[in-house]
UPF0173 metal-dependent hydrolase GCM10011323_32770 (Pontibacter amylolyticus), 226 residues
Amino acid sequence: MEITYYGQSCFLFKIGEHRILFDPFISPNELAKDIDVDSIKADYILLSHGHQDHVHDAERIAKNNDATIVANFEIVSWYEAKGIEKTHPMNTGGKVTLPFGTVKMVNAVHSSSLPDGTYAGIAGGFVVETENQTFYFAGDTALTYDMKLIPEQFDLDFALLPIGDNFTMDIHDALVAADFVQVDMVIGMHYDTFPYIQIDHQEVKEVAQMAGKELILMEIGQTINL
C-alpha cells in the first residue's frame, strides 16, 4: 500500500491499481504550494465532512479524473448539483464494497457545513478494509467511546488521527483513541496548516514514544509504503 501526503488531512492511497484520495485541501494551503493539484490521479475521493479545509479541491480533482466522490448523502447531493456524475452516497454505519475493498462510514464528533454554508450532514470517518490491510481514517473528531466499537468489527493495521488540537483531538487524546481502536501505528493529520493547530513535532513524537506508539508525521509530498 502506497501513501502520499498532500497536507492537512489529504492523503492519496494507491491500493493495487486503484487510487483513493481523502479530504483534498491543497491549492489554498501555503504549506502545499509545491504540489501540482492537476497532476494528482484519483479514482475515488472520500470526503469525511464538508468543511473547506477538507473539500476545497474535490470538484477540480474529480472532474480532472472522472473520479467517484464517496461521502454522506448531503455532500454527494451538493456535488451532483455541481455536475459531478460519479458519486456514491453513504451515511454513518453504512458500508459499501468498492473495487479496492470495503469502506464503512463511522461516527465522528465534529461540525460540518459546505463552503457556501449548505448543511453537510453529519461528520464521519472511514474504515477501509482491503485484501491485505485495514485502516481507520478518523476525519475531524473529538475522542469518543464510539471508537471502541471499531476493533470489535475490524482488525486494524494503523489509523490516521487528527492531532492538531483546538478543532479536533490533540496528541494525548489521539493516543487514547489509538488504544481504543487497538493500533500501535498512527499517522498524524490535521496539524500545522493554521496557527490554531500548529504543533511541536519533537514534543508529540516523544509523547507518542512514551505511550508505546509509533507516530508518523509525513512531509507534504512524501510517499511511504506500508
